Amino acid sequence: MYDNVPDPSTWETPDAATVTDTDRYGKFEAQAWEGLHPWLKQRSAWIDHDETLPVIEGTVIRIQSERLPHTGTPEPVWLWTSAGGIDDELLDSLWSAWLRRFDIEHTFRFLKQTLGWTVPQVRDPEAADRWTWLVIAAFTQLAAAKSLAADLRLPWEAPAKPGRLTLARVRRAFPDLHATLPRLTSVPKPSKPGRGRQPGRHNSRKAPICDLGKKAKRDKTLAQRRNRLSRNQSLKIKPKRCPVTR
Fold first, then answer.
1. Strand ordering across the sheet containing 58-65
2. Considering the domain boundaries, does residue 215 fall inside one?
3. What is the number of domains present in the chain?
4. How far is 220 from 228, CA to CA, in rounded Å?
């Protein structure tokens, strides 16, 4: 199993194995082997590691489904985790978390593209946190209104079952739904905007400069590292010697 993973004759007895009946994937099989480690190479995150590369033991997980939700033939998927001492309950939690990652990725995409999570150019982290909580509150309201919103689908969209609307469709029908909800707050009072800064007066409160936390670009291969070091060495300016006067 260490040399040829796809060959079942090289596999050892799994340390944990489960079989689960699911609605979308049919019979779902999972197997786990502990004490295995990836073959590290001196590149990417280990590009600056000049000593012998360490051995990081973990667990290899193989999952196989009976069918796919839509079309296609299911293929086995191999996963690796640094966790050890895996039992059947933890094994089911790991492959379930791996499947749920697709929902998490689409959730972040919806927050950014539809709800405008990253649109405001705020000045400080506290304002970014407040805006994030507002976006989360809006996301929660849309999720709670799934069973109440009407399906205002576009001509090219397929009809959705009741209670199975996507959050984008719920947002499309939310203005009509919001008009029928009871108003729990008082009517807003009319107000006028402030005078603002006087003409010709500059802003005395400059925006703070916050650390973005971005890291420098990392070399991926040893060849890139050698080229970068040689380029930096050639750009160094040698100090000039002062003339000796007698």
1. 16-22, 26-36, 58-65, 77-81
2. no
3. 2
4. 11
Model pLDDT, residue 21: 92
- Report the Cα–Cα distance between both ends of the chain, in Å, rounded: 78
In a domain, 207, yes or no: no
Q: The domain containing residue 36 runs over which residues?
A: 8-101
Q: Single out the residue of 141, 139, 159 nearest to residue 150, CA to CA.
A: 159
Q: Give me the DSSP letters along 172-203.
A: HHHHHHHHHS---SPPPPP------SPTTPPP
18 and 81 both lie in a single domain: yes
Q: What is the DSSP letter of 10?
A: G
Confirm whether 93 is domain-assigned: yes
Q: Is residue 168 part of a domain?
A: yes
Decide if 160 contacts 151 (C-beta within 8 A).
Answer: yes
Contact indicator for 167, 143 with CB cutoff of 8 Å: yes
144, two tokens: 């709670």
Half-sphere exposure of 222 (CA within 13 A, CB side): 4
State residue 59 phi and psi, 5-degree precision.
-130, 135
Q: What is the pLDDT of residue 209?
A: 74
Its pTM surpasses 0.85:
no
Confidence of residue 2 (pLDDT cuts 50, 70, 90): very low
pLDDT digits (tens, 9 = 90+) for 156-203: 988 888 788 889 999 998 888 888 888 888 888 888 888 888 888 888
